[in-house]
Amino acid sequence: MGLRGGVWASCSVPCPGGGPVPQSRPTSPLASPQETLTGKYGEDTKLIYELQDQGGELLALRYDLTVPFARYLAMNKITNMKRYHVAKVYRRDNPATTRGRYREFYQCDFDIAGQFDPMIPDAECLKIVHEILSDLQLGDFIIKVNDRRILNGVFAVCGIPESKFITMCSTVDKLDKMPWEEVRSEMVGEKGLSPEAADHIGEYVQLHGGLDLIEQLLQDPKLSQNKLAKEGLGDMKLLFEYLTLFGITGKISFDLSLARGLDYYTGVIFEAVLLQPENDHVEEPVSVGSVAGGGRYDGLVGMFDPKGRKVPCVGVSIGIERIFSILEQRVKASGEKVRTTETQVLVATPQKHLLAARLKLISELWDAGIKAEILYKKDPKLLKQLQYCEDTGIPLAAIIGEQELTDGVVKLRDVATREEVDIPREKLVDEIRRRLEP
Amino acid sequence: MGLRGGVWASCSVPCPGGGPVPQSRPTSPLASPQETLTGKYGEDTKLIYELQDQGGELLALRYDLTVPFARYLAMNKITNMKRYHVAKVYRRDNPATTRGRYREFYQCDFDIAGQFDPMIPDAECLKIVHEILSDLQLGDFIIKVNDRRILNGVFAVCGIPESKFITMCSTVDKLDKMPWEEVRSEMVGEKGLSPEAADHIGEYVQLHGGLDLIEQLLQDPKLSQNKLAKEGLGDMKLLFEYLTLFGITGKISFDLSLARGLDYYTGVIFEAVLLQPENDHVEEPVSVGSVAGGGRYDGLVGMFDPKGRKVPCVGVSIGIERIFSILEQRVKASGEKVRTTETQVLVATPQKHLLAARLKLISELWDAGIKAEILYKKDPKLLKQLQYCEDTGIPLAAIIGEQELTDGVVKLRDVATREEVDIPREKLVDEIRRRLEP
Fold first, then answer.
1. Where is this region: Disordered (chains A, B) (predicted)?
2. Residue A1 has pLDDT above 70, yes or no
3. What is the count of structural domains for chain A?
4. Residues B353 and B431 in one domain
5. How many CB atoms lie within 10 A of CB A325?
6. Which of B109, B59, B50 is nearest to B81 (CA)?
7. pLDDT for position B32
């Protein structure tokens, strides 16, 4: 499974969601000073949950895991770290539960912080996204990549002033949800661009491809004269080289329409989208769109350091809520029953007045590490106990009645086949383990 | 390990902290309407973090996992559930980090909800606490048990009016931190009891023992006339019977001074405390005190149900932060190095211009599920790469140079012994797996 696979699992710090880590504690706090969060999310700042002033402290709930991670690095003077983090974030948004959008939801982030040679960590982030989406078998997907420096270069050669670069990014970013014509009118109407400048931008941002496109743009008479764009295109070429070595370029598209809404990206940006199968047999198709996204943010840590010391970072956020809503719908559609417990054995009795025998036996099983349950009734009916096994998918029942107590055995029942065998009590644990072997 | 052992692992719903569960989502939200939380925590209500009103909603951060669990059951009309939950809670308290007290900290709860025969789920909660504390080898411990009904019966026979029962509980609860004389003066001074009533209470609440004490109190001329106390003592006897079958009475103490501060308990209450070893060699002894606590709260779910329908519950909260602070200090004292990564292999090169070879090899290892890392540098020195393995405890290095590329082999180095063997590339994954077998 991807979430524990090779590249992902080599990440240095385990997820705090799996329990606090004894040695290092990379969990950045859920509540941060309000000014920590404001000014990092552009137009989305209005979605931040703020806490009441209760004694001179203005705090806010985290909006994502990236800004708290950057603050954590700065506050602890860490210049080098690779970690993943699965935890909840909060947005005052309108929930859309069918699409996996909630006000409180899990994010699942992977980030590499540190001063390294270009594009090596960036390529690893994309490899991780590829590994997770492949292993989860979510269907066909594509990972769009772009670079903020290329986009800014495009804006520059189209005559846009630098002060408008960030707002232009949010407008271009809408190209995955609306056609170019609408994006163009926003540029001209709301953002005050000349129709010619908008059209010029349109020529670039509608391009997508692979190494060919990178080479073509490196030859582009205007773009190749722009320092930022040239740097971005050079790194993009390097990135494709590394992704070729990783064997994943088949799923990667260099897409100039990808802009990502957030303010803090400074280099490579990327976003993974699921592709709807052409022949869609699912009755209620899930419109999920983007399932992972991220990029390079070299300036964010410096914003939290008193001396402005920078720590370059690149990271990715996996949309686990969206992925789970797809998996849920798929399970629902398949009609398969999913077990909600891991219980291996139900300890049952066929007659009354045998609660003590059940408690003694289950205690033995628990002490041996067997996952066992009993019904919390003094004298449950045997039928009810067996029905419980079938309802919850417990594979074995260990039945102990008066006869079994006298004989020193336990009747082990296979719930599926209904076969029953008397097992000497001292061999019960071994027999259960043997039956449960994969 | 206890946290995954027999009794604990048989709990039906896995911890949301380990990732959201596809089928059921037992995660109660972090933010609740403020009125949900007020009036549940007695004097501790002042420690609740409240959110700013941002559009007519008054919300608060959860103070524990119990009240949100009760609200979850009521809102979803669930009458029957066993689950564990590891997640963060929030308290506007004064942090004391050395004692493992934070404003934001993990709680780890296990609860059984439903109408069952008396004391069977209650005994299971105690068995779980016993299993966890034993398996973690935290040293000697004792689990104190009592029953709110016994305490209330004591108050009643000592002439205390029912309206004062809850506040009397918080006073008695201080007996683990201060001597009886001080508790007595709080009763007389602050709570307005007569010295005789206080002394009478003192005769009872300083008692502790086992089955003998239960029998003795069942014969107590006054207490045995009190309906509540009689019920509580009857159930306590049953509980000890079940705990004997579970083989754990050696660590259980029926202790009448145990009161637990919270308002919502209605029956059995319990608290586990670590005992300091007599011969203490640790330089900085950790004063941790209570590491788990809980009890029965049969009225809480009904408070959230519009029709007041009750769902009896019993549960326990494991103080994982405190347990971790003990484990951390122990590791520190032992001087042992704890690995912070699970990386199995570092892919290294001895010469320059071999980044492509490293990337190709690591990609093969990742794809085979091997946990591998590289240094994010184009041309790192071999010494630096091997030093990194030693510093971080990576056991193997897969070294690929020009000669190895020509020969189709990889030099596999055991970092500890410094032994190196050439392995044919196609056999590398198997050889790594073989070496890493336990």
1. 18-37
2. no
3. 2
4. yes
5. 21
6. B109
7. 66
From B2, which residue of chain A is nearest by alpha-carbon distance? A369
- Which of B313, B334, B355 is the last residue in one of the domains? B334
Q: Is the confidence at residue B278, as pLDDT, over 90?
A: no
Mean pLDDT, rounded, for A331-338:
84
Q: Is the CB of A366 less than 8 angstroms away from the CB of B127?
A: yes
Cβ contact B12–A392 (<8 Å): yes
Q: Does one domain contain both B329 and B360?
A: no
Domain assignment of residue B228, yes or no = yes
pLDDT of residue B339: 85
Please report how many Cα atoms fall inside a 13 Å half-sphere around the Cα of residue B89, on the Cβ side: 26
- Please identify, among A273, A307, A334, the residue that sits at the C-terminal boundary of a domain: A334
Summarize the confidence of residues B324-328 as an average pLDDT. 85
ipTM score of the complex? 0.80
Residues of chain A neighbouring B48 (CB-CB closer than 8 A): none
B360, B313: one domain:
no
Helix orientation angle between B355-367 and B428-436, rounded to the nearest 10 degrees: 60
A163 within a domain of the structure (yes/no): yes
pLDDT tier at B16, thresholds 50, 70, 90 = very low
- Three-state SS for B420? strand
Say if B136 is an interface residue toward chain A (CB within 8 Å). no
Residue pLDDT, tens place only, B178-209: 899 999 999 999 999 999 999 999 999 999 99
Give the one of A106, A338, A343 whose C-beta lies nearest to B10's C-beta: A343
- CB contact B57 to A (< 8 Å): no
Any domain includes B180: yes
Residue-number span of the structural domain to which A373 is assigned = 345-436
The HSE-up count of residue A198 (CA atoms within 13 Å, CB side) is 17
Tell me: do A363 and A426 sit in the same domain: yes
Contact A111, A83 (CB under 8 A): yes
Distance from CA of B170 to the nearest CA of A (A): 25
Pairing of the two strands A396-399 and A345-348: parallel
A268 with A353, same domain: the answer is: no
Helix B355-367 to helix A120-135 angle, to the nearest 10 degrees?
Answer: 20
- Asked if the structure places residue A128 within a domain, the reply is yes
Q: Please check whether residues B290 and B389 belong to one and the same domain.
A: no
Asked whether residue A154 falls in the same domain as residue A202, the answer is yes
Q: Decide if B324 and A61 are in contact by the 8 Å CB cutoff.
A: no
Whether B166 and B255 have beta carbons less than 8 Å apart is answered as: no
A264 is in an annotated binding site: yes
The H or E element that residue B90 is part of is strand B81-90
Q: Which CATH number is A68's domain given?
A: 3.30.930.10
Q: Which percentage of chain A shows pLDDT scores above 90?
A: 64
Tens-place pLDDT, residues A363-395: 999 999 999 999 999 999 999 999 999 999 999
